[in-house]
Amino acid sequence: MIVTLFLGLQSCDERENYTDGPKVLDIVSAVQLNGKDAEVNHLKGSITVSLAGDTDLSNVAFDAVFPNGVTVMPETGTTLDLSSPVDLAVSNGVTTRHYLISAKLLPSKIAFLGDGATLNDISDDDVKEAGLWTQQVYGDKFIYLPYNQLTEGSLDGVNVLFYMYDNVGSTAQPAALLEHLNVISKFFVQGGKIVAGGHGTGLVEELGRDTSGLRNILGSGTGGANPDTWGVGFANSELGNIISQGCQFYANRMVYVINSGYKEDHNALWNLGSLDDPKFVSFTNLYDAEVIGAWDWAVDGQGFGGIVYWKPSGRFMGHIIALGIGGMEWHMNDNRVNPYANNVRTIYKNSIDYLGSK
């Protein structure tokens, strides 16, 4: 009976991706395909990656990391035709192990939401400017979706949904959008990716993903003249570095986003004052969400969250990056030139591109 039990347990744990001979260790430590980290599953003997929708699968760069004395075929540094799965043979000179490399293409469209029949009909100046910028940057990948045209079919092929919203007098989400919230909810629950800016950060609550009740630093006034230069500070984290990459820094992890002049001051921030220190860690542990940035003067104190990444959690398979720092305006109400406008656009682009790669 003991022998039978032992053999049964051994059978349950046995991997299926070895040839005859002694088992070898998990010696492939990392694989990149077109520069993107692939998921290596040693138990299943699989290597998988999701690539941008316009990737040519017949010509994918392959790089692998493994110890000296180990050989792989196909060789690292070559290109693969991943139109169909490719067998990777890994040998340590004694035995050979096989992995199956496969790739899937992500949807490629970047969809922008607005209240106008066209981009030029959008009522708010900041939202309109954000939409025109998105169209310019993403070109053929860009589509514009008015709220009243939101359907499940309209989101086919959409990789990232960009929802920017700004309003005077109220921070509530527009009724025209909420009429189609079920469409966005299904998209998000099934793994859709959303970048929400300004007052649009309230979408995280409407979808039920944010139950913290901490997004309570809200502004919707008409604004006015202000002599100060406002900035954003980024968390000292891998994601903080990714989202701020390419910005013009004035200090370590600090960037300016708006100069002196008219400001709307439409903040939509999470107040973390009630959380235990370190507050960013507590927020993550409680809500599966990572604080990426806050006001520059407040980021080290960790009392506020102004840029937050909502990770897949529970029934929500999707991702949201919410950018609610009021100084990150897209259009200056007094028509001045904001010398830090490129920082705002870089942060948004990095957010869209980061989610687009997930």
Can you give a write-up of this model?
This protein has helices spanning about 1-15, 125-140, 175-180, 180-190, 205, 240-245, 280-285, 340-355; strands spanning about 30-35, 35, 40, 45-50, 60-65, 70-75, 80, 85-90, 95-105, 110-115, 140-145, 160-165, 195-200, 215-220, 225, 230-235, 250, 255-260, 260-265, 270, 290-295, 305, 305-310, 320-325. It has about 350 residues and is of the alpha+beta class. The protein has 2 domains: about 15-105, Immunoglobulin-like (Sandwich); about 110-355, 3-Layer(aba) Sandwich (Rossmann fold), CATH 3.40.50.880. The chain has a 10-stranded mixed beta sheet with strand order 11-10-12-13-24-23-21-16-18-17, with helices on both faces. The protein is globular, with a radius of gyration of 24 Å. It starts with a helix and ends with a helix. The relative contact order is 0.11. This is DUF4960 domain-containing protein. Pfam families: DUF4960. InterPro entries: DUF4960.
**Major sheet: size, sense and barrel closure?**
10 strands, mixed
- At the fourth level of CATH, the homologous superfamily of the largest domain is Class I glutamine amidotransferase (GATase) domain
Gross geometry? globular
Backbone structural class: alpha+beta
Percent of sequence in beta strands:
25-35%
CATH class of the largest domain: Alpha Beta
Low-pLDDT sequence parts: 1-15, 18-23
Radius of gyration: 24 Å
Q: How far is the N terminus from the C terminus?
A: 48 Å
Count of DSSP E strands?
Answer: 24
The number of helical elements comes to 8
Q: What count of domains describes the coordinates?
A: 2
Query: CATH architecture of the largest domain, please?
Result: 3-Layer(aba) Sandwich
Helix content: 10-25%
Protein name: DUF4960 domain-containing protein
Organism: Flavobacterium pokkalii
InterPro entries: DUF4960 (IPR032526)
Pfam family, one: DUF4960
